[in-house]
Please model this.
Amino acid sequence: MLKRCGDSGISMKFLRANAPTLALERVRQLAHAHFALTGAARSLYSERDQNTLFREQDGMGWIVKVANRDEDPRVIEAQVDALAHIHSTDALLPVPRPRLTREGRKTASFRTDEGEEHVIYVLSHLEGRVAAGIEWRPELLHRVGQLQARLGRALRGFFHAAVGGRELLWDLRMAPRHLELAAALEDPAQQRLARESLGRFIERVAPRLGAFRAQVIHGDLNEHNLIVTAEEDITGLIDFGDMIHAPLIFDIASALSEFMTSPERIPYVLTHLLMGYHEVTPLEPGEQALLYDLVEVRLVIAMLVAAYRRSQAPEEPNYFAANGAGAVNVIRALQDLTRAGFDSMVHRACVAGARRPAARSTVEELLARRKRVLGSRACLFYDRPLHMVRGDGVWLTDDTGRRFLDCYNNVPIVGHCHPTVAAAISAQSAILNTNTRYLGEQLLDYAERLAAKTGGELTACVFVNSGSEANDIAWRMATEWTGARGALVQEFAYHGITEATHAFSPSTNRSGTGASHVRTLPPPDRYRGVYRDETEETGRKYAEFADSAIESLQRAGLKPAAYFLESAFMTNGVLEPQPNYVSEVFRRVRAAGGLCIADEVQAGFGRMGQHFWGYQHHGVVPDIITLGKPAGNGHPIGVVMTKPDILDHFIERTGFFSTFGGNNVSCAAGSAVLDVIDTNDLVHRASDLGAYFKARLKVLMERYDIIGDVRATGLALGLELVMDRQSRTPAPAETARVVNRLREEGVLVGSEGAGANVVKIRPPLVVERQHIDLALSTFDSVLRAL
Ligand code: PMP
Model:
């Protein structure tokens, strides 16, 4: 029986009346009949319902809940619906998952021998123990705040009539009725305090509540409704029995008051719990201003409920008693603190929360989600993966608000989220975004600007959406043009993910056998290649491998259609080839009827300094160049540029068209990237800063024997690590350690090369000398500690 509270008419649901007491065998039989549960069963303590834990063979735990016969079945249904809704909106929120009946219904019901009807339903068991009494460390409170806000967000689109107009004891809008409980307080001073506080609330606050955002809220977050592991990590949030449609701010106000168990905890709880909440769901200024009143009146209600309960059932265990008694002291401390003092703490917590990027999920949660949707093999950087939430220039910010100096990513060539590029994308996407089968200026402007960068030598463009696509199309152009089917690539090259380009990417070939139409050339590696000096003669000797490769193709009945050059030799270990190597290979390939394709996906756009394109460093002009990665600074753009007759021939034979390639927004992004590069003379800066970076790395090399070689062209830099300088044995484990240590110290780099022992450094071209100094001093300390 739910007792009524005086004349107030508010449900006093806490009274332990009529909790069902079925025999375990009976519960087992019902659980099997309705919910197909067969596992081992044991009873759990509950104040109101009868709870039984079933452990199924698959290890899953389910709690069979036989509801108190006074529980409104519609409210139970609302709870089950809400939990299902939460799972569909934020699957990783740790709340119980409802189990449907055999017929797919949310609940079942049955009649006891005494003729009482009970609802029975099943929720998944959250492993761990109730958090009551644990030490609420700052980060835990912070997570509770985040969790509550996430739960609120997950419930935003939920409604159920049973929780709509519900009259609930803890609903602050019931304040006029709470006034009637004040008589239960024995101490006249406490009575006065309660009456004044409720009176103020009724007069000044309640009339304004209708103007605040409202939704269904959980409304009952306290340490008895949180589940923690042995390590006191939060793993669950339970008890949806007090859900109500109310101003959203009630949720956090109630949690704040629950955790403010003593006066000293007021600033602590405000700082950590509120900050966590505000990070996920920023409170509106009006809501912030309301918190003092809400927290105060919530504490008053706790005090009243405890007193009332004492007066009605002095012999019953009184879970609220301690809270109620403590509440008086906290209310007095709040009043001493003054509203202004409280508000300024609220303000500080919210400002701090707003500055911290919202961390919606832990790394573990994200990993679990990734596994589900991306499979278990999807690659991640670093031993401790990073969750980036913001990018700005050379900086990336992770979910904890920590900034990392990005010396790795070669896509954001003009810096992360460059405002010029972002604005161009945003503006164009609000005007028009269509395809190249319509006339338009953006496409032509962009193509002309790219063509001009080649000195007018490669003026015919096709637009696609990635580097792989660009290389794939370049390959098709080459085969159409030459009629040949053979290809030459470097030994540890990477050119893409399509079937054709994967065959040109020995660096990702896990099968061990290369494609039968592809021949690889040893990289012109002065440090560990077959020939190590820097003479022109050596360049020619390396180029002679092209002759043998062409002969090998011929023996297989093939001719070379193309040689793919990656001008920075990045995947081969960021090499600096001999001066005439590339021109000598080009000459040989062309003599055999093949085309020369420069894959500028990494080397282009000034990465190598001095020239806009990588191939220009080798004194050659390719027949085709392919662009990707930095072209859109993160917006997907791929381009193939060639001579007009090669392009016309290709389109004639293939009717080439790419739906997204060359769309208006991509062209706006691409042009904006060129604007930033040109305006800031980033290409020449890359030469100067790259030379500085390289020289300083060479100084480090004098200090650390593990550095076997330092190589760089512009801002494409490589640091080769070896076990000892004599044998030059690669040091891949140490390289991985350096990369991971640097990440721990806030500098992002990668590793590269056939021996996985080259530290790869490619900062955005907007990097400044001070950033390079920071990177170098971090390298220094990491190498020292190795
Ligand atoms: N070519 C080179 C040289 C690359 O580095 C890459 C990407 N790493 C590609 C082609 C493929 O580009 P995307 O990933 O955009 O398909």
In short: The chain is about 40% helix and 15% strand. The first helix runs from residue 24 to 35.
